[in-house]
Amino acid sequence: MTIVTGVTARVPAKLNLQLAVGPPRADGYHDLVTVFHAVSLFDEVTVEAAGRDTVTVTGEGAGTVPHDGDNLALRAVAALRRQVRGGNRTAGVRVSIAKRIPVAAGMAGGSADAAAALVACNELWTAGLTAQRLAEIAATIGSDVAFALLGGTAVGRGRGERLTPALAPATQYHWVLAFADGQLSTPEVYAALDRLRSSQGVAPQAKHQPDLDAGLMSALRSGDAARLGRALSNDLQPAALSLYPALRKTLAAGLELGALGALVAGSGPTCVFLAASAERALELAVSLSGTGVCRSVARVTGPVPGAAVVPAQG
Length: 314
Ligand code: C5P
What we know:
Order of helices and strands: EEEHEHHHEEEHHHEHHEEHEE
Bound molecules: cytidine-5'-monophosphate
Structural class: alpha+beta
Number of strands: 12
Largest sheet: 8 strands, mixed
Strand content: 25-35%
Number of helices: 10
């Protein structure tokens, strides 16, 4: 019998092609209708048996990731352990996270790491939990964790954890990401949206019941990037812009440079641009980085699959 000593899982970042936000609920969350889309910017999470649970983080924004019980990957390990007691499964785990997804950037990097930790520990402990069971555990850790397991393009409802895969042709979209200098806190952006809405006299419970955008879904079914670009929407964008006004310039610059669509990623501050082709994405990325409206740029494609174990070498 082979004893598995370390398992690595790779997990993508997400975009929200639509993010429709309802009024605040009694539990502080907001009901959503969102169209998640996984893109080819990956973190890698390695888990190894150890005396106790620890986490180390390297790469993009490593210094700002919590190393204690607030770390979502460690919380995922603990949540999975509660479900699969026995054998070596109660032992500690050394979690090593190699980050490429920026922290607090609106791309669910922390949730991605939690999803990767679930998949990797399921393998390390030969626990054999089904995708369905892992998704249920994921939903207890954070609103975006279940999608990081699933990947692809999917409609999210509830807090974002109730998922339906979107049936769409196998079109590959080309995106340019503009990373910002700063970070935005997700709860603060939601709170800013609530404030903006009440300052506009919107009775919170009466309006803004979120609804799936039929135009966006039809654009996805057609595989037409120009239509998709026009249909992108994010209710959190005005709130993110109110907290980070410089993002207006970034969005405007990308559109001037020919992007088919532009929006803030999730709660921001990353800005996302859709390009017509791989070549256009390269041109856009080069031009955007020359304008000085962002810290750095990346080109990614989507959709890509969700969290998965990386086959061992050799
Ligand atoms: O679920 P997660 O921990 O990722 O959410 C972070 C914060 O974002 C929540 O504490 C809440 O303030 C806000 N949020 C929300 N409604 C959602 C998802 C997140 O208000 N559907």
